[in-house]
What does this fold into?
Amino acid sequence: MAEAVGPSTESFERFNQAMGLGVVADPYPELAELRPLHVVAAGPTLMGEDVPAVVTAVSYDAVQEVLRDAARFSSAGYGDVMGGVMGRTILQMDAPEHGSYRGLLLQAFSRRAMQRWEGEIVRPVVDGLIDAIVAGAAADGGGGELVRQLTFPAPVTVIARLLDLPADQLDLFHRLAVELISVTVDFDRAVEASEELAELLLPLVDRRRVEAGDDLVSVLAQAEQDGQQLTDEEIVSFCRLLLPAGAETTYRSSSNLLVGLLTHPDQLAAVRAERALLPSAIEEALRWEPPLLTILRTATGDTEVCGVAIPAGAVVVLNLGSANRDERYWDEPDRFDILRPSHPILSFGWGAHLCLGMHLARMETRVMVDRLLDRLPGLRLDPEVDPPEITGRTFRSPSEVRVAFDV
Ligand code: HEM
It folds into this structure.
């Protein structure tokens, strides 16, 4: 097989291996049993007097009801969970602060920006990585491994290009990116990586305040709403957030789509023949196997959801993966079927905090699969190895996707 291509191979191997230890292969059967209850308590017997209750919303209606009502369910809890590593980010903000901050950030994710990024950044990055896959296969007569060679490096490289990082800092950025998202593997290292990322990014912000280009940092440095601008620290925290929120999710979700298609050759053939099916294939993979299963809220007062009482201060875990397989909305929800009737999925959240990068994620995924199908004729699973498996309880994706193609 070809040499692994892309950022920080060694730290990715450590991250990928640690993520694969003791993983849950399939949490969905257990979630299906709980789903009729809408909201379930998590480990009630372990709760002491002073410890907040933890409940999990498992049905579509319950998850959507919580996400629709940012007054009853606050996002502030992310400050405790992530603040130590990420700094203060948009994820933990409530109204009214959240609205004005989001307005400033939205200026960077315009439709025009998306079109420009596709042609100038995403496609060249993806083509460069596929060039290396083709060259590797031609050299050793083998196939490829699409996680290490494409789906992992592409989104993080796209973010580096969006920030317009100087070329001599790319390797460092890639290493720090993997160390930051390895926070559950090595917390101290992630905190150090977060500080080093600030050192790398702050001079860039300074420069862009004076001399703006059309990169993401420039747009953020110049963005203004009602006379307000983002501070240096806010810009740095946002750029850091793009790594777990943007790069990690997109690498996992595009890998999951490839597993869905490659393990269902008839559906792969349909997409190969008719590329207009790609958007529904992307949506179906995001429904079937979202990369991030759970997000969090905190109940601001005593309340109820789908008739289930929730006490003030309770931590509410929202299981997006379970909501996406609610049999009230999808027939045979465990089945991957790109032709099923469409219904809005909850993989990007819902309501005030709906994912800011969802159009970018969909576009990157579309370009990756489209270019793979154009450039690797006869793309199929490597028949010599076991088929890939999607695993994990909170983050889900395969650790590798080995393929063969006609060279
Ligand atoms: C398939 C890929 C992705 C998935 C599944 C995903 C999922 C999510 C989810 C579930 C949320 C809501 C969190 C909450 O309400 O607690 C969110 C928010 C967010 N996402 Fe994504 N995301 C993806 C890609 C991206 C990309 C590519 C970017 C940017 C480059 C991005 C940036 C953000 C930001 C900034 C927020 C916070 C929005 C806010 O708090 O108002 N995401 N994402």
